[in-house]
From TrEMBL:
PROSITE patterns, per database record: HTH_LYSR
Name under which the protein is recorded: LysR family transcriptional regulator
Keywords, ordered alphabetically: DNA-binding, Transcription, Transcription regulation
Family statement drawn from the similarity comment of this UniProt entry: Belongs to the LysR transcriptional regulatory family.
Length: 293
């Protein structure tokens, strides 16, 4: 019988690429991860890893087992969802991840509605950049999350996760006057922190217009970004959800590129009653037409 916890480690090795990264994700030592994977190989009766020096790669049998591991983990999620649905009333923790603009706009009314309908749910919200959410969902550190992607920075498919569309947004150039991207070539730019989706999106949008943005400031809070634009410190790209209380002197010019907000959860959890309840409350708050289930 194959151990599910070891299957999860093998799946994560396929995701992260190194034993050290898997160990860091699970707060294990690399030696402990190696021992567990060696035990899984003994259970499987076939080589799952090809070791060359310090590097490790999945064998064809290892890749096959990873595909089946995703099915097993999704089936366990479905089983847990079915058991939760058999209980009377919703109770217990619901750990929610969300990006900052959703925290200020979409989430509060959804939480009010959810708490009123299901007072025994223990709601816990964590503000996160969407780039870190997939691993937290895979590790069950979150139950559900709001994520976003852009036309220029699409979400990479992840067999361990599922998403449901919530809303699309316009992206604006925030500048002292009406501008297009080409007209901002010589302007100083205000970008989000490197490694975030917003940073990558802005860089790619400028590159598509034929130049690399000249970065003067880094700021992740869009209220700060708009304040800096009003102070003449540069130009920036701002999504629709953040385009509220725009300071005097800042003009927002819409771009054809879009930002898409999605609800993310583990494969197999789409029928979990807490996930469905959150999706319903969130969909109502966002005016969404499509929710999981």
């Amino acid at each position: 019988m194959l151990d599910v916890r070891r299957l999860r480690l093998l799946r994560d090795l396929a995701q992260h690429g190194t034993i050290a990264a898997v160990a860091a994700a699970h707060t294990y030592t690399p030696s402990a991860v190696s021992q567990q994977l060696a035990a899984l190989e003994r259970e499987a009766g076939v080589a799952l890893l090809a070791r060359t020096g310090r590097t490790v790669a999945l064998t064809p049998a290892g890749r096959t087992l990873v595909a089946h591991a995703e099915e097993v983990l999704a089936a366990l999620e479905r089983a847990g969802s079915a058991l939760a649905a058999a209980r009377t009333g919703l109770s217990g923790p619901l750990r929610i991840g969300a990006f900052p603009t959703a925290m200020r706009t979409l989430l509060p009314p959804a939480l009010v509605r959810l708490a009123a309908a299901h007072p025994a749910l223990e709601l816990s919200v964590h503000e996160l950049d969407p780039a870190v959410v997939p691993q937290m969902l895979r590790d069950a550190a979150l139950d559900v999350a709001l994520v976003h992607d852009y036309d220029l920075v699409p979400i990479e498919p992840d067999p361990a996760l599922r998403t449901a569309p919530l809303r699309d947004e316009t992206i604006f150039i925030a500048a002292p006057g009406r501008r297009d991207l080409a007209g901002c070539r010589d302007e100083p730019w205000i970008l989000a922190s490197p490694g975030t989706l917003c940073h990558t999106m802005t860089v790619r949008a400028c590159e598509a217009a034929g130049y690399t943005p000249r970065v003067r400031h880094h700021a992740d809070d869009f209220v700060t970004v708009l304040t800096f634009v009003a102070a003449g410190q540069g130009v920036a790209l701002v999504p629709e959800l953040a385009a509220v209380d725009v300071p005097a002197g800042v003009v927002l010019t819409p771009l054809p590129t879009r930002r898409r907000t999605r609800l993310a959860f583990r494969a197999g959890a789409e029928r979990h009653p807490a996930v469905e309840a959150f999706a319903e409350a969130l969909g109502s708050a966002a005016g969404a037409e499509e929710v999981p289930g």
